[in-house]
Specification:
two-stranded antiparallel sheet; 214 residues; transmembrane; alpha+beta; elongated; 4 helices; 25% helix; 11% strand
Length: 214
């Protein structure tokens, strides 16, 4: 015969004060958590929003860098160093006054006070990095000379393209030169008058020995 036993029932009531303290503990824990979202596993809505904005900012920066790489970062506007001295094209120094001959650029000697004429930015991979106005391309594309070496009555290109023809567009021989076709490699259409009547043929027609006077 079973005995009637009364089983104790669990109380369904709760202590409001204890619940309040529990809620306070959770809120405090959440607050502490959101102070360091990086290590937070229980972030609040506010903390999540901050994280989203940070990630969005990083994404925008990454996109900007990618676009700069793809389309190229705008380069600084090059300084205009074109100048003329004695009717010859030259290179303008930083003082904006000194104009040195084109052939003095990248010759191993600092002709400008600050040495800008020997700057590696222009003196590396010659003549590619030189300003175009400083060079003259010879008839043979493998050779080039400085612009002030053109029309100086000397065969600097080796094929006389810097002294004869439409590319050079040189004036006629000067007063101290005798016009003729030279038989030597050094000259092209003129020879120095100092070579006239020296007993050596310098012109193909021998005019330097029979017609020319020093």
């Amino acid at each position: 015969m079973r005995s009637n036993q009364t089983h104790p029932q669990r109380s369904r009531s709760f202590d409001a004060a204890s619940l309040g303290s529990t809620v306070s503990m959770l809120s405090g824990r959440e607050k502490d958590c959101c102070e360091d979202c990086g290590s937070c596993k229980c972030c609040s809505r506010r903390c999540v929003c901050i994280s989203v904005f940070v990630l969005l900012g990083l994404a925008i920066m990454a996109a900007a860098v990618a676009l700069a790489i793809i389309f190229g970062i705008p380069q600084r506007t090059p300084v205009n160093r074109y100048c003329t001295s004695n009717n010859m094209t030259g290179y303008l120094c930083d003082d904006r006054v000194t104009c040195i001959p084109a052939s003095s650029v990248c010759n191993g000697i600092s002709n400008c006070a600050n040495g800008e004429d020997e700057n590696s930015e222009i003196c590396t991979d010659l003549p590619k990095n030189l300003p175009a106005y400083l060079i003259f391309k010879c008839g043979n594309p493998q050779f080039w000379i400085y612009i002030d070496e053109k029309c100086n009555d000397i065969n600097n290109c080796g094929d006389c393209s810097d002294e004869v023809g439409i590319l050079a567009n040189c004036p006629s021989c000067g007063a101290n030169w005798w016009p003729c076709t030279s038989v030597f490699y050094e000259y092209c259409k003129c020879i120095p008058r100092s070579l006239c009547r020296d007993g050596v043929q310098h012109c193909t027609d021998w005019s330097d020995e029979y017609k020319c006077t020093p």
